[in-house]
Design goal:
Blueprint lengths: L5 E7 L20 H10 L3 H7 L2 H4 L2 H19 L3 E8 L2 H9 L5 H15 L6 E6 L3 H12 L5 E8 L2 E6 L1 H13 L4 E4 L12 H11 L11 E2 L6 E2 L2 H10 L7 H10 L4 E5 L5 H8 L4 E5 L5
Parallel strand pairs: 1-2, 1-9, 2-7, 9-10
Antiparallel strand pairs: 3-5, 3-6, 4-5, 7-8
Helix pairs in contact: 1-6, 4-5, 4-6, 5-6, 6-9, 7-8, 9-10
Length: about 300
């Protein structure tokens, strides 16, 4: 860290940014060694997958999660001397990246953890997710309750911004929710290209299996706090981290609350470390007074 490093919050995205070429700005740098180390753990060439695809393999949850984690940690490796993180946070999978950046576990442990999480989430039960655009979160929660009363499984999965809430559940429930949301004035309801009902109670069997993985993690206390996806808990101790890693599988990601907490702490700069801008537009809709920076290859 340089003497002129900027105090800020460092944020890492979740699944959705993966695409061939995502590691293009890392190739040839000192941080490329992370792809080599990850490949040794995984048993396949992760760098080649991130650079060349094939896209259908990279998009699969079992590969996408570890690819995103390694790419974002490599970008942070290149940029970290420029910043003084007061706090790390991440969206869904990004919370694991944040914990790795905060020193909760070794790089190899993080790779194994992301690999296991991706593989288990690929076995998710039938269901899906949909983004409701243009309704406030309270209205979406109300609609989910109404749909559940009709016998469907449905709940809020991501509170992304004041006007974007993602719901997760069984497919008939999503259909009913979409119709109800449009009747209440939603601008759009967009089905997400995901393989299961992530961050919902339907993921309980996956969370149970993931618990056995998390229990074997070699964890230490974070050197910098990580703001949990609940928007409230500051993760530092191994016991806290184990609990939140497991409950996150079925619990909602309250990103709006995370961003509000950042502002309430008096932090001024929100730095997204990612191959492309994903969290920044959501955060700006929540707290437009923050300064936003995208780190996408060792620079701004």
């Amino acid at each position: 860290m340089t003497s002129g490093a900027r105090t800020c919050v460092i944020a890492f995205p979740g699944q959705g940014i993966q695409k061939p070429g995502m590691a293009g700005k890392i190739a040839g740098t000192s941080a490329w060694r992370l792809f080599e180390e990850a490949s040794d753990v995984l048993g396949y060439d992760l760098g080649a997958l991130c650079m060349k695809g094939p896209e259908e393999v990279l998009n699969h949850t079992s590969q996408a999660q570890v690819a995103i984690l390694v790419t974002c940690l490599a970008l942070w490796e290149l940029a970290k001397e420029e910043y003084r993180p007061a706090l790390f946070l991440g969206h869904s999978l990004g919370e694991i990246t944040a914990l790795g950046a905060a020193g909760a576990f070794s790089f190899a442990e993080g790779v194994r953890l992301a690999k296991a999480r991706g593989e288990l989430m690929a076995t998710a039960p039938s269901g899906g997710m949909a983004a409701v655009l243009g309704l406030d979160p309270d209205t979406v929660y109300e609609l989910c309750t109404k749909v559940r009363e009709s016998g469907f499984s449905l709940q809020v999965a991501n509170e992304n911004s004041p006007g974007q809430t993602v719901v997760s559940g069984d497919l008939p429930g999503l259909e009913r929710l979409g119709a109800c949301a449009l009747e209440r004035g939603a601008k759009r309801v967009v089905r997400l290209n995901v393989s299961g009902p992530f961050h919902s109670s339907l993921m309980a069997p996956v969370a149970s299996e993931f618990e056995s993985v998390v229990s074997q993690l070699d964890l230490v206390t974070c050197h910098t706090p990580v703001l949990s996806n609940d928007g409230e808990t500051m993760l530092l101790s191994p016991d806290q981290i184990r609990t939140k890693l497991i409950t996150q599988i079925t619990a909602p990601v309250r990103f709006t609350k995370q961003v509000q907490r950042v502002s309430a702490m008096g932090l001024k700069e929100f730095v997204e470390v990612s191959p492309e801008r994903l969290l920044t537009p959501l955060a700006r809709r929540t707290e437009s007074n923050l300064q936003f920076t995208l780190v996408t290859g060792g620079g701004i």
